[in-house]
Input
Amino acid sequence: MAEDLKLSRGISREETYKEIIPQINALVVGETDLIANLANITAVLKEAFGFLWIGFYFVKGKELVLGPFQGSVACTRIQKGRGVCGLAWLEKKAIVVADVEQFPGHIACSSQSKSEIVVPVLKNDEVHLILDIDSDQLDDFSEIDDKYLKEIIRIVEQVIA
Ligand code: SME
Output
C-alpha cells in the first residue's frame, strides 16, 4: 500500500481510531519484521493524535527495554513492577493514569507528561511488549483509547511469533 496515511480532519478521536486501524492492519500484514511494524505503529499514532510520547518496551529477562518510539528521549530500562509500565507488565493489564503526579512510583521521562495509558501485548498469556502513550494533557485517556488501542495491540499479537 501507499505509505501515506489517510487522515480526516475535524473528526472525533473514536472516528480517527476507526480510520487508522484498517490502515495499521494493512501496513503490518505484509511485513514480518516486528521492529519495522512497531516503528510504523508509533508513527501512525503520533501523526493521528499528536500525543507527547508513544513507544514500545520489550520484555527482556527481568526488565523492560526501550523499543521503537516517537517523542523525546526516554528511560531505557524499567524493572518489573516499577512505574506504570512495570505495573502493567506485572498485572498483565492495561492501566490508565489520569494524573501522573497522583500515581505512586510513576517514572517521569518528561516533565511535560500529565497523563498516560499503558497496554501490554500478550502471547500465550505472557507479556512480550508494552505500549506506552503519554499526553501533555491531564486526563486525556478514556475507555475509547483503551478499547481501540487494544484492537491495535491485537494486530501486534498476531504478528509476534
Ligand atoms: N512513565 C512511564 C515510564 C516510561 S516513559 O513515560 C516513556 C512509567 O511510569 O512506567
The chain has a mean pLDDT of 95. The chain has one domain: 13-159. Helices lie at 13-29, 34-49, 83-91, 143-159. The pocket of methionine sulfoxide is lined by residues 53, 55, 74-75, 78, 83-86, 106-107, 109, 113, 116, 132, 134 (CB under 6 Å).
